[in-house]
């Protein structure tokens, strides 16, 4: 690995003990402090190198210190980094055009995160339900085991009670159905709409990330689209984790053969610079001035960087790289699974979002695998207690895929 020619930043001597004194303990942090990155590699404060298959949890699309990212940040910060949305922001318009031209959306709204993008989608759905369909108390259906964010509305939308514990009263207007179960979905809609229409939208992930790397079933989503068309229900897809090339296609919904009415993006869109986006078709674009806003959303710096990320995806053919490298990774992980059938149940995923699923009765958890891999110089992330998630930067090479697979094999071997 050739080291970057950029001047290395000064490494802080701030200890974990000092950190925990001043920072709220909202994360179960691993005992390493990362201080530098290049490509698919990061280094900790002690100089140890790691192969990064977390990428900020599917966020560092171009890896670390990518020249295009560095150039975009440098040029824009020297020109104009922030102004209010009270004025036109050219980089925001350019990014919106890029996204609209390459998706089913007609217009975009920009914010700072995936949770905010999903919050905006929920508000858009509710206004559409009130003003277009005349629904007094709209209900949004979401899937069990889903994850949509940490705001009060989005943790309510999230179909996992562990995220909602101790935060009641939750936001009304949500109901939950099993993922990929069309009979259950149809039964729930029939029950809720028995007296009068109440279901305003169905909000789903194209692939459930935090819920265990569960890909959507193509036939299920196509039937959901039909139901929405028949009943005037809006179909909203949360693409926060799977969008921007991660699945081997630009958008996760492309794997399912359908188009949503509304979809959200964040994480990989800015390559690590905070940005979120809400896109919708013109038919449901009912927001008016004053309905929704964001102080930092769509500022010149975030949009210039995101546009650079998107352009680099095309220029360096990274979506195809995600497809090819994802196939290689699943093949390697399947080989490990076949060698340890009592420990590993299956391998699943699309492109470069993949899960190694442990058997429920195995003596170790996904956290144990993550820790064992970390000792060997590989960073992985859990997706629940029995799924190990692999989400490397989209610039990853086949050689790095092979190296990560070998370290994963060694980690599993050390635990059985």
Main attributes?
416 residues, Aspartate Aminotransferase, domain 2, alpha/beta, Aspartate Aminotransferase, domain 1, 13 helices, seven-stranded mixed β-sheet, four-stranded mixed β-sheet
Under CATH, the topology of the largest domain can be stated as Aspartate Aminotransferase, domain 2
Total count of domains: 2
Tell me the name of the CATH class of the largest domain. Answer: Alpha Beta
Taking strands numbered 1, 2, ... along the chain, how are they ordered across the largest sheet? Answer: 4-12-11-10-7-5-6
Low-confidence stretches: 1-6
Radius of gyration: 21 Å
Per DSSP E runs of 2 or more residues, the count of β-strands stands at 17
- Total of helices: 13
Shape designation: globular
Structural class category: alpha/beta
How would you spell out the order of helices and strands?
A: HEEEHHHEHEHHEHEEEHEEEHHEEHEEEH
Beta strand %:
15-25%
Helicity level: 25-40%
CATH superfamily of the largest domain: Type I PLP-dependent aspartate aminotransferase-like (Major domain)
Q: Whole-Å distance between the termini?
A: 32 Å
* Major sheet attributes: 7 strands, mixed
CATH architecture designation of the largest domain: 3-Layer(aba) Sandwich
What does the average pLDDT come to? 96
């Amino acid at each position: 690995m050739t080291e970057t020619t950029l001047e290395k930043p000064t490494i802080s001597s701030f200890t974990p003990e000092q950190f925990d004194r001043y920072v709220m303990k909202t994360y179960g942090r691993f005992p390493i402090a990362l201080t530098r990155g290049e490509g698919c590699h990061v280094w900790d404060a002690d100089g140890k190198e790691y192969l990064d298959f977390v990428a900020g949890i599917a966020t560092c699309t171009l890896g670390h210190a990518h020249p295009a990212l560095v150039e975009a940040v440098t040029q824009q910060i020297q020109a104009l980094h922030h102004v209010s949305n009270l004025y036109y922001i050219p980089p925001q318009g350019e990014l919106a055009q890029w996204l609209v031209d390459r998706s089913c959306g007609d217009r975009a709204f920009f914010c700072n995160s995936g949770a905010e993008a999903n919050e905006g989608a929920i508000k858009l759905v509710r206004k559409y339900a009130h003003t277009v369909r005349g629904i007094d108390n709209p209900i949004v259906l979401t899937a069990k085991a889903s994850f949509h964010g940490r705001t009060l509305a989005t943790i309510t939308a999230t179909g996992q009670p562990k995220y909602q514990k101790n935060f009641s009263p939750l936001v009304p207007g949500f109901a939950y159905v099993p993922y990929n179960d069309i009979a259950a979905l149809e039964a729930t809609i029939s029950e809720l709409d028995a007296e009068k229409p109440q279901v305003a939208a169905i909000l789903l992930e194209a692939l459930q990330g935090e819920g265990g790397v569960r890909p959507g079933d193509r036939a299920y989503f196509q039937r959901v689209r039909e139901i929405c068309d028949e009943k005037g229900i809006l179909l909203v897809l949360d693409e926060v984790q799977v969008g921007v090339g991660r699945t081997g296609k630009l958008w996760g919904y492309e794997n399912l053969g359908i188009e949503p009415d509304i979809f959200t993006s964040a994480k990989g869109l800015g390559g690590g610079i905070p940005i979120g986006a809400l896109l919708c078709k013109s038919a449901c674009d009912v927001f008016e001035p004053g309905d929704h806003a964001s102080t930092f959303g769509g500022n010149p710096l975030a949009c210039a960087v995101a546009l650079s990320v998107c352009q680099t995806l095309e220029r360096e053919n990274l979506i195809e790289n995600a497809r090819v490298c994802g196939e290689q990774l699943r093949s390697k992980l399947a080989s490990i699974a076949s060698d340890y059938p009592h420990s590993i149940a299956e391998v699943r995923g699309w492109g470069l979002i993949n899960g190694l699923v442990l058997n429920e009765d195995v003596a170790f958890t996904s956290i144990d695998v993550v820790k064992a891999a970390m000792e060997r110089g590989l960073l992985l992330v859990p997706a629940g207690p029995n799924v190990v998630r692999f989400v490397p930067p989209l610039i990853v090479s086949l050689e790095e895929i092979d190296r990560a697979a070998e370290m994963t094999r060694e980690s599993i071997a050390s635990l059985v």
